[in-house]
Amino acid sequence: MSRFSGKVVLVTGGTSGIGKATAIAFAKEGAKVVLSGRREKEGLAVVEEIKKAGGAAHFVQADVAKEADVKRLVEETVAKFGRLDVAFNNAGVEWTGSLTSVTEADYRRIFDINVWGVLASMKYEIPAMLKTGGGAIINTSSVGGHVGMAGVSVYIATKHAVEGLTKSAAIEFAKQGIRVTAVAPAAIVTEMAERFVGGTETEQGKALAAMHPVGRMGRAEEVAEAVLYLASDTAKFTTGISLPVDGGWLAQ
User: Is 155 annotated as catalytic?
Assistant: First the structure.
């Protein structure tokens, strides 16, 4: 399949986990992919993997918490490949702890990356897409953007914010050909999940897997497939929604 032949896709947080899997999936379906992240070595390795498989990719080192980096990222994407059709705003970090232990520094760091990073990305992606008639934006939310959870309050708050930004942007730009959606994973086997539970084979990791009705954690490639659907023309009448990829978590 080549659903994205001729399309230019930007993936933030593309150096590992869900971002890496999605960048590779887009490239396999014909897209020219720009991926970004703070870790240059890992980012260049993803680009090399895509190129070895016959795809086109480019890495831009950027921190989405910094507006100047986001602006440069979008400008370099357009300069490299001529346009921007799809953006997957995936960069994010986790936080765990008691509500009464949170510091202002914790709050600023997590919100700067998880919320401002998404907002700043859309601020520059949307004008770039409008120049060529529109596009699709998918933001990474979480099942935590739909419910409350103990011990991860700041992280949960950021994902509720991403849900609100997604809905508001979708309404604001719907008539201009910009579709904005979110994907809401449950626990996925990634580096972030490993940090949350100390490893998937720990007692905490096994308990987390058992919390999904399907009895296991998800795979990054499964989230990638949902993102590609939301970005594709198959979903051209779909905007403003958050698609759970959660093994039944939210159905409980």
Answer: yes
Q: Which residue has the tokens 């700043």?
A: 120
The per-residue pLDDT for 63 is 97
Rounded to two decimals, what is the model's pTM?
Answer: 0.95
Spatial contact of 47 and 34, defined as CB atoms under 8 Å apart: no
- Which helix (H) or strand (E) segment is 183 a member of? strand 178-185
CB atoms under 10 Å from CB of 134, counted, come to 16
- N-to-C CA span, the chain: 35
Q: Which helix (H) or strand (E) holds 122?
A: helix 117-130
Domain 8-187+223-244 has CATH 3.40.50.720: yes
Residues of the chain with pLDDT under 70: 1, 193-194, 196-201
pLDDT at 193: 66
Q: Write down the catalytic residue from 107, 124, 155, 229.
A: 155
Of the candidates 128, 131, 117, the residue with the CA atom closest to the CA atom of residue 165: 117
Q: 110 Cβ partners below 8 Å, 6+ apart?
A: 93, 95, 154, 155, 158
**CA atoms within 13 Å, Cβ hemisphere of 223:** 31
